[in-house]
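Task: fold both queries, return tokens.
Query 1:
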Amino acid sequence: FLRIPIEDVASYMVRIVEGILVLNLVFHAFRLLTSQGEEGAAEKSRKAIVQNIVGVVLVFLSDVGVRAVNAGNGGQQIIINELVGLANFILQLIAAISVIAILVAGILLIISVDESLKDRAKTIITGTIISLIIVIASYTLINIFV
């Protein structure tokens, strides 16, 4: 009788589901870009994109769970390492988006002639700097204590 470790089967299934989710994500992102102001289609695409991202996270966590269960006593450390990696990724993503927001707000501040747009740009820059401080502090605390 052929014996295939459950971890290999789970890994194979995870890769298939991840591939399908990525293709679906690209498809809906393309639909969102080509909706051209059609609010109903754009909203459906936004919801599908959020559902795909949730699906990718669930598949990722299920893969971690299977590896942790199969690892025996070392499974707890696998879960901790994966969660730290996931937290670092999310924090780095937020930091990158924050830098882009600062750049866009700076350009808006420079080229806008309307005072309300300048005030809005200043508010965006202030909020983004605060979020960057929080992200840097969180990243530091996670990597020092875990």
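Query 1 returned. Query 2:
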Amino acid sequence: MAIDNTVTITGNITQDPQLAHSAGGTAYLRFSIAWNQLRGDEQVPNYFDVTAFNTLAVNAAESLSVGKRVTVTGRLEQSSYTAEDGSKRSSVRILADSVAADLKWATAEVSKNAPKVKPQAAPEVAAVEDTEEF
């Protein structure tokens, strides 16, 4: 049975995105967003770590900075680890499938990227004669 864990969060970027590359060359971008949840008369901030990969990471790194309001759609990923003090901890982050400017609070100019990789031509297939009789 497949389980869908898609989440969409709109919030403000709390730190400048950090673009890096894995040992294998995969681009990845890490940043955090925050949104305020209203509890009674109080606004309580909630923080989310976000990671984007490949072309999304590169495009987002060129477009985003601290304070910008964005909408992130992606999947939740939970991980467990042992802290320096020996205690067991866990964290949840969003693996971004898309990141967009929140146009309720700003304007944006969208431009299409030029393809970075030339499309490969389909391989030629040798002609085959049909010799079977039906």
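Both queries returned. Flag for query 2: The chain has one helix and six strands.
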